[in-house]
Amino acid sequence: MRFEVTVLGSNAAIPTAERFTSAQILNVQEQLFLIDCGEGTQLRMGEYQIRRHKIQQIFISHLHGDHIFGLMGLLTSYSLNGRKKALEIYAPEGLSQMIEIQLKHTQSYLTYPLHFHTVDPTQSDIIFENGILTVQSIPLRHRIPAAGFLFREKPLKRNIIAEKIETYQIPYTEINGIKAGADFVTSAGTIIPNAELTTPPPKPRSFAYCSDTIYHEAIIPLIEGVDCLYHETTFTHDELPRAIKTMHTTAHQAAQLAAKAKVGRLIMGHYSSRYVDLSKLLVEARAVFPESYLGLDGKRFEVAFK
């Protein structure tokens, strides 16, 4: 069962030929979630063979242009392609008005229901839940209201031991219950404990997305122990005064957070265009947290079961 992050855009502020602005796809068990939607997101989806029609939820961290300027185009393209399925957007207050005024003045319409859900960036809440995962907001500190998102897989069912099915002649109608933890009662009335029939499921996987923010240790309890953390790394640490002024994070600081939160892996991103060669940011981060990786357009990061 797949749990995979695909980077669609990794640059800050403006797109370049090599790096578009912020957008990522999270694939959890073949359900696709779009996180931020910078300029060019549609192009990247086509280039990386993302099945955009499978996206039913979009999560927007904040309303700066490099995180939303691709959204209006995507929404209208869905209509041009005849979409009928509802689309849900989770974002700080203000995005719905921005979309509505663009639809009004371009005399455009949507062929599908569009539902907005306001995210409060001052507190952490479960903002979405379905059968396979929950999404929890992460309060960030930026120049405008901003929130990160913690995607956490729900506990999986136990694994039934194939040989036991034959040994105890278990009907297929009983298998789901056994996977859920039930004991099995044979036709003779003997109770076979679940622990004899199954093995424990793998640990649920998790991904935290922390976009534009100043270094903010208050998020550590929320992201502690996640398998994979995306955290912006706009500058190298020699640009710390500029990072503080613009309320961004350096590669060194992001690595510090990753180390303190004991995450499994750090994905870097949101690079300033001043860095054509990103190796300096990577070296800086790995000096603090060795499991740091450059998030580049087209790069995929799979989270495996442990």
Give a structural overview:
The chain is α/β, with parallel strands linked by helices. The chain has helices spanning 41-47, 65-68, 71-80, 95-105, 162-167, 172-179, 194-197, 220-223, 240-246, 251-261, 279-286, and strands at 3-9, 23-28, 31-37, 55-59, 87-91, 114-118, 126-129, 133-139, 147-153, 159-160, 184-185, 191-192, 198-199, 206-210, 228-232, 266-269, 292-294, 300-302. The chain has 2 domains: 3-155 and 206-302, Metallo-beta-lactamase, Chain A (4-Layer Sandwich), CATH 3.60.15.10; 159-199, no CATH class. 26% of the residues lie in helices and 26% in strands. Strands 6-5-4-3-2-1-18 form a 7-stranded mixed sheet. Helix 10 (251-261) packs parallel to helix 11. The chain is globular, with a radius of gyration of 22 Å. The mean pLDDT is 97.
Set out the fold topology.
Elements (H helix, E strand, L loop, with lengths): L2 E7 L13 E6 L2 E7 L3 H7 L7 E5 L5 H4 L2 H10 L6 E5 L3 H11 L8 E5 L7 E4 L3 E7 L7 E7 L5 E2 L1 H6 L4 H8 L4 E2 L5 E2 L1 H4 E2 L6 E5 L9 H4 L4 E5 L7 H7 L4 H11 L4 E4 L9 H8 L5 E3 L5 E3 L4
Parallel strand pairs: 3-4, 4-5, 5-6, 14-15, 15-16, 16-17
Antiparallel strand pairs: 1-2, 1-18, 2-3, 7-8, 8-9, 9-14, 10-13, 11-12
Structure in a nutshell:
By secondary structure, the protein is an alpha/beta fold.
Number of H- or I-type helical stretches: 11
Q: Return the CATH class of the largest domain.
A: Alpha Beta
Residue share in β-strands: 25-35%
Overall structural domain count:
2
Summarize the amount of helix as a percent range. 25-40%
| CATH architecture type of the largest domain | 4-Layer Sandwich
User: Do you know the CATH topology of the largest domain?
Assistant: Metallo-beta-lactamase, Chain A
Biggest sheet architecture: 7 strands, mixed
Low-confidence stretches: none
Structural class: alpha/beta
